[in-house]
Write a structure and sequence with these properties.
- The protein has about 220 residues and is an alpha/beta fold.
- The protein has a single domain, classed as 3-Layer(aba) Sandwich (Rossmann fold).
- The chain is about 35% helix and about 30% strand.
- The protein is built from seven helices and ten strands.
- The strands form two sheets. The protein has a six-stranded mixed beta sheet with strand order 6-7-8-3-9-10, with helices on both faces. It has a four-stranded antiparallel beta sheet with strand order 2-1-4-5.
- Strand 1 and strand 2 form a beta hairpin.
- The longest helix has 16 residues.
- About 35% of the residues are buried.
């Protein structure tokens, strides 16, 4: 599904280059649940943003289903991203001025889904995540755990093939975090590929492979 070859990312200050990622080679197969771990500053989130095609300034080769992402322009990368990838963030990233229903509807608008079909898909997703009663509420009216659940629902509403999650339980207490991780496990069991960045060994164990980064290098990749 995904193949990274010799990926590097650096910031230049005059003649000095400060590397964030060095010579990253990584393959992710369909149906995997991969946890990326490492100390702060190791390059975990940077790697996730490259996988998510948000970051444009890096070197190396990135293949998604044999499509050479590194050769695509910004518009074509966005089309590939919107058609295949869902995102879950630590800080939820819900739109405060839109209801839960409207937040879930937004990703479908990027895929030219008709209004009637959008509403049907959103209603199905609300039911699937057992948040039908929250559909007319705004994010500020929800708890942190409820907001993150809506964030995951928004990530999967368009049926992406892969979900990228950046510290998805970082702002939640332990019971809420466990609920979110169980939801990820269920989605993975249903066939969705998941890549998460996490500091938590407990959360990492939900995956089937752990990739460890240090100072921008992959130092270990092993079965969880």
């Amino acid at each position: 599904m995904i193949g990274l070859r010799n990926i590097e990312k650096y910031f230049a200050q005059g003649a000095t280059k400060t590397y964030v990622l060095r010579r990253i080679d990584l393959d992710i197969k369909p149906g995997e649940f991969v946890s990326i771990m490492g100390p702060s500053g190791a390059g975990k989130s940077t790697l996730l943003h490259i996988l998510g095609m948000h970051d444009q300034s890096w070197g190396g080769e990135y293949y998604f289903d044999e499509v050479a992402v590194h050769k695509l322009d910004h518009k074509k990368r966005a089309q590939l991203r919107n058609s295949n990838i869902g995102f879950v963030f630590q800080s939820y990233h819900l739109l405060d001025d839109q209801t839960v229903f409207e937040n879930l509807e937004l990703p479908l608008s990027y895929r030219d889904v008709g209004k009637k079909d959008r509403q049907s898909i959103v209603c199905h997703t609300l039911d699937r995540f057992q948040i039908v009663g929250k559909k007319d509420l705004f994010p500020s009216q929800l708890s942190g755990g409820q907001q993150q659940l809506v964030g995951i629902a928004r990530a999967v509403v368009a049926n992406p093939r892969i979900i990228l999650a950046d510290e998805p339980t970082g702002n939640l207490h332990s019971s809420q975090g466990k609920e979110i991780m169980e939801m990820f496990r269920k989605l993975n069991d249903e066939g969705t590929t998941i890549v998460q960045v996490t500091h938590s060994e407990v959360n990492a164990a939900y995956g089937n492979r752990i990739v460890r980064l240090e100072d921008g290098w992959i130092v270990k990749s092993a079965v969880a």
